[in-house]
Amino acid sequence: MPIYAYKCESCGHAKDVLQKVSDAPLTTCPACGADTFRKQLTAAGFQLKGTGWYVTDFRNSGSAATGAAAAGASSSAEASKPSAGDGGAASSATPCGASCACH
Questions:
Q1: pLDDT attached to residue 31
Q2: Residue 48 main-chain phi, psi, to 5 deg
Q3: pLDDT band at 96 (very low <50, low <70, confident <90, very high)
Q4: pLDDT score for 95
Q5: What are phi and psi of 74, to 5 degrees?
Q6: What is the pLDDT of residues 47-63, one digit of tens each?
């Protein structure tokens, strides 16, 4: 069942109401009792889940896979490097330190 937003044109009272599509619209304001309670025009809220949608499958086509492949290549290159004899020499060779995310 959809949720409809209503607002009173007299007092400004607003309320969201869960109604069937076939139900008659409400007209009487629950706050002031005037017959100026009207439906508001609102945007539908929905979320695309699963595969088969542009948002999940094709929006960044290739960039995520390329970025993941590059990250895997750099981590394997780091693993294959021989470690320095003293622990401080490797961190002093990088301009921003060994704990940064750019190396």
A1: 95
A2: -85, 125
A3: low
A4: 61
A5: -70, -35
A6: 777 777 776 666 665 55
Type of residue numbered 44: A
- DSSP for residue 28: S
Nearest to 21 by CA among 44, 40, 3: 3
* Cα 4 → chain centroid: 24
The residues, any chain, with a CB within 8 Å of residue 50's CB and separated by 6 or more, are: 56
Closest of 51, 29, 30, 47 to residue 38, by C-alpha: 29
From its phi and psi, is residue 50 left (phi > 0), alpha (psi between -120 and 50) or beta?
Answer: left
Strand arrangement of the beta sheet that strand 14-18 belongs to: 14-18, 3-8, 37-39
